[in-house]
């Protein structure tokens, strides 16, 4: 093999520095999840195909990675089907398993499969990779991590309040201050569609409304007209286009628009409960903002809808999202199990922290001290000291070969090792160590006890 | 879907208690890896097929999970090949990617691909899942984690000394005392094959010798004879069958047997260096034992060979293994890059800890305190206290619904939540909390400050 090996497009290797940064984010999220009472589960990387297929729409089905059956897999393909050479139709005969596409469907499968062992309400979190055969592009990968927290088995709106607090707690802990937690409610959108006589056009209506920020009021109206929404209806929802101000002002406007819709009024009531809860409890660094144009995953969510935007000035799509779904487990035969959950976008959060220089400088997993190798006798003495350091939790290592000192120092420099020990003949004679601080260049002669005190 | 959903055979769901136990092992191993100066990398779950295929023998190739190409994948299959309907031959036309089979080959690929960014010697660890289409059985899964630490780019035997210490450090930290770290050397086995005139039968010879424990001396000799090893050769290696005693005694015997083999003598020299190093530095709870029958992965290892056996009395195969390999990266075109590494068998270690009751009782990721929900006003007061507790790092939650108190207590019991708070009308009036210890049943009335003191 003459050319250098490579990895599949859309996948990544992570070097030690990158792993350290990612673990910093994972650990921060995990700590907050647990403080909020969520417990971890893990599910297999691949599921039976029928668990995943048909759950993400036609496009989703296409983007699911399928695993080829083992053994003489072609022998099990029906002759006529084989002759057709139709990739779509043959897939289910060639593949029985598929890689996880998200963490939500496997979670629903888990809840239904283990319902008799679970104590509801079940607060679970899950931090695992997912795979999508998407076209790779900047910030979009074929393998990436999702970090999800969900509660199933309770209708209480306190959960929604908790998830807003959770977002605030995580981003505050990451020092990413000033994120906006946008909130909407599916019932508000349904109510608006109802009052403008477009119940049957809910998706068209919300897809158009969702573009308000990007294409502006006039084009949104044009799109609504093209989808068959009446001029009268568009006039009715005119106030939506200019909905501004704080929660209270927006809610007042919505109450006017939605006065004839029971569902819309229920949505307003839910929003008010959540807003009052958050106003009472306070947020550290985030802001909760009503955004009636927000419609992510509408087919899926039945109540609250969340999306988190990075602080103003950072050009990045949403860094988190979620919502309430009333029938997640229904697809696997377990009815009436309401759930609500949120997700954190690890890769985008990492990009934002990098851009804003928010990764703590102390994040590193390099070794703390390197012992220079001066030969066999010195190496044995070094290994003894290294053992004492490791016993008290200080990471330490011996340069394995007796190479030129300058080469060993270069190695320490490149690996950003903060301290180097010189343990040569004279130090051995006096039972001391020469400790060099690689940052300042300072050198001092110390005993083992002093060495431990400095490095611990 | 009427029947309960399921997961593919050979895969597992992990519930919160299982995740907690596995994380205890992972975290212990990770901490020791880092204290020994190893740094983490991560590689993609799937690799290009040509990176993996042909690296694990014919059997290995068969057990690698292949990923079906996306889109109209059949259209790219050559007509003649398609007509043949030969599963083996068609695989490479249907699949370009495959799931990681171990961490060693991806590590070799990583080193070669990133050789210009790496500072050698490169001490890396990697803890990630691998997948094998093996027949599932007790303790053997299709998805399982490997925990590997390797150093590449140094021939120093201090690395071998370090890995023995690392095994000792990890198993001591897990309180799994009394493991045996078996060591052998490929050069010893080659030397023996040489002196009995069976260089060309090295594999047959070592495969037979490896069975000594299981089938006994006579049957091993029979097998050697059947493989064409001479009676004279078998007489020469007679001392091997009764090799007993400490390192020194065994080495003395080996020196007699191997006196005419340069390679054998080199192997003895390496073993002596490692043994002297360990004798000088000491081990906490493990024992290093020479085992000349040890031959795992022989085609692969070129120097030291390691295998770790669980403490006596525990019926379990090896719980770790590794060795020195002189040409790992050669398969990807980078020559002369010697490496040595060890692996920890997570699933078997977990089984052993479970059997011996060695998981600390404190391993749990349940929430520390549950607030009983008595209604809206009480819930708001509870959420305020919960916020204060979370701010100081105490995991706390409110039961989300105002259900019967007995139901809420049952939930706390089932989830093993150690403390419950009753915050009702009278407590709100006196600005106190009734704190119930679920273990002892004790109840006390406390202020918020006292509550924090108890729970922090």
From TrEMBL, chains A, B:
Q: Which GO terms describe its biological process?
A: histidyl-tRNA aminoacylation
Q: Reaction catalysed? A: tRNA(His) + L-histidine + ATP = L-histidyl-tRNA(His) + AMP + diphosphate + H(+)
Identify the enzyme class.
ligase
Query: Which keywords fit this entry according to its UniProt record?
Result: Aminoacyl-tRNA synthetase, ATP-binding, Cytoplasm, Ligase, Nucleotide-binding, Protein biosynthesis
Signal peptide region: none
Pfam families from the UniProt entry: HGTP_anticodon (PF03129), tRNA-synt_His (PF13393)
Q: Does the keyword ATP-binding apply?
A: yes
Coiled coil (UniProt feature): none
Aminoacyl-transfer RNA synthetases class-II family profile domain span: 1-400
Query: Which residues are listed for L-histidine binding in this entry?
Result: 102-104, 132, 146, 150, 296, 300-301
Q: Which InterPro entries does the entry mention?
A: aa-tRNA-synth_II, aa-tRNA-synth_II/BPL/LPL, Anticodon-bd, Anticodon-bd_dom_sf, His-tRNA-ligase, HisRS-like_core, HisRS/HisZ, HisRS_anticodon
Q: List the GO terms this entry assigns under cellular component, sorted alphabetically.
A: cytoplasm
Entry's localization field: Cytoplasm
**GO MF annotations for this entry?**
ATP binding; histidine-tRNA ligase activity
Q: Is Cell inner membrane among this UniProt entry's keywords?
A: no
EC identifiers of the protein: 6.1.1.21
Which PANTHER family does the UniProt entry name for this protein? HISTIDINE--TRNA LIGASE, HISTIDYL-TRNA SYNTHETASE
Name the protein family: Belongs to the class-II aminoacyl-tRNA synthetase family.
**Subunit details for this protein?**
Homodimer.
Protein name according to UniProt: Histidine--tRNA ligase
Q: Which organism is this entry from?
A: Psychroserpens burtonensis
